[in-house]
Amino acid sequence: MSPATPALHPSREALDDLEVLRRGLYGPDAGMRPLAVPAPMAAAALEAGALVVEDAEGVPVARVEDLRAVERDGTDGLAGAGAAPEDAHPAPVLVTGRPVWLSEPSSRPFQHLHLRAPEPLAADRVVLVEGLADIPSPVPDGARLLVLASTALDGPTAGNDVVRAASAGALAAPGARVVVVPLPPDAPDRRAALLTTLGVDPARQPRPDRRAAEQTLAIVEGHRPRGVVVLLTGLSGSGKSTVARAVATRLVEEGTPVTLLDGDLVRRHLTAGLGFSAADRRTNVLRLGWVAAEVAHHGGIAICSPIAPEDATREQVRALADGRGARFVLVHVATPLEECERRDRKGLYAAARRGDIPDFTGVSAPYDVPDHPDLRLDTTGRDLDECADQVLAALVAARSGEGDRA
Ligand SMILES: Nc1ncnc2c1ncn2[C@@H]1O[C@H](COP(=O)(O)OS(=O)(=O)O)[C@@H](OP(=O)(O)O)[C@H]1O
Ligand SMILES: Nc1ncnc2c1ncn2[C@@H]1O[C@H](COP(=O)(O)OP(=O)(O)O)[C@@H](O)[C@H]1O
């Protein structure tokens, strides 16, 4: 029997690099950069001959075939092999291979601006933007603002600000356009390959007018409304994470901070070690609810997307939010089981039906349908933007007080 293929969750920089490689933006001959893999996982992966790379949401984005270990200088060999056997934390092993692309990576802020394929950018009009100070003021008409920065949902990243500011500048310049490439930092080789592919000569770039560049970014401060906890509950595959990410993305794009507590991510960090017994699920959802209520207590917006199968536990989360002076919005993502099972994005229903995953919600574990959610959303055949609009409307209503219950 062939050994199972281990799954790695690499750094955001490594995922960014894979995304740019996948789009062909480093040129046709570019290969994969080595990935740092914990030593025990590397040993298992090398034995299996392959490694699956998953993004932060657990979506498999690539399978690395023909796997081999490389030394830090790029030569073949088992990096870290010199670590003493008694070392509890042996150095990570660098591995590389041939990537076979799987699912599209999960969406993120400004994804619609990402360059998806090598494309001539009218080199004489390109302005390279690697930080706020590179954004000319005013932006020349017809400019192509090529932003080399990573954007992300999790936490304030400088990249989000840079893209927002570039977009603001481009709005005022007829014919100007912003394109984003999430180039990893400290990768001069990759930067050079990208610019060659796009036909951009950095030596011929205009010097940016650094005057008042930071002011390009309009930060709306003003009155701070009350915090909100949004709990999206529903079966696996119903669309909780996808809708939650879409809502969070909209908020980030308009400059509103948001904390996204996705079921899978929470289980990897905050509630690592818990299983899927009824008791463990309760603990999982309550811990998540507690953190969300803390975020909302300080005026923030927390969007949570666990299955949260028990009505009583969901009501406890409501009480936690109430207790911290925050508003609570319950969204039932009511996509029927048949549709969730048809989607089966992660292959879990098939495994549950085979009996490989016990206590699987909707198949072999219960789900209490909420009686009176603030919003019920069946995503079957629905446009994601419409679903996000509905959740946003409920969120905005709650934030402004309209959504309060007696
Ligand atoms: N037995 C079983 N039942 C349901 N789900 C399972 C199970 N085992 C693993 N998974 C995966 O875990 C994700 C659900 O975790 P949650 O923390 O949201 O569940 S719960 O609220 O504690 O019930 C769920 O993710 P989503 O598909 O995003 O909902 C599954 O990927
Ligand atoms: N309107 C929609 N809203 C959300 N997801 C949708 C919609 N239409 C189709 N889908 C698809 O359904 C799947 C939902 O998966 P996911 O968001 O991970 O669900 P969950 O987090 O509930 O397990 C994704 O593959 C998504 O592309």
Automatic annotation (TrEMBL):
E.C. code: 2.7.1.25
GO biological process: hydrogen sulfide biosynthetic process; sulfate assimilation via adenylyl sulfate reduction; sulfate assimilation, phosphoadenylyl sulfate reduction by phosphoadenylyl-sulfate reductase (thioredoxin)
GO CC terms of this entry: cytoplasm
Annotated ranges, domain APS kinase: 226-378
Binding-site positions, ATP: 234-241
Pathway(s) served: Sulfur metabolism; hydrogen sulfide biosynthesis; sulfite from sulfate: step 2/3
Pfam families for this protein: APS_kinase (PF01583)
InterPro entries documented for this protein: APS (IPR002891), APS_kinase_dom (IPR059117), P-loop_NTPase (IPR027417), Sulf_AdTrans/APS_kinase (IPR050512)
Reactions it catalyzes: adenosine 5'-phosphosulfate + ATP = 3'-phosphoadenylyl sulfate + ADP + H(+)
Enzyme class per UniProt: transferase
Keywords from the named record: ATP-binding, Kinase, Nucleotide-binding, Nucleotidyltransferase, Phosphoprotein, Transferase
Annotated transmembrane regions: none
Listed CDD domains: APSK
GO MF assignments: adenylylsulfate kinase activity; ATP binding; sulfate adenylyltransferase (ATP) activity
Family: Belongs to the APS kinase family.
UniProt function note: Catalyzes the synthesis of activated sulfate.
Protein name from the UniProt record: Adenylyl-sulfate kinase
Organism the protein comes from: Phycicoccus duodecadis
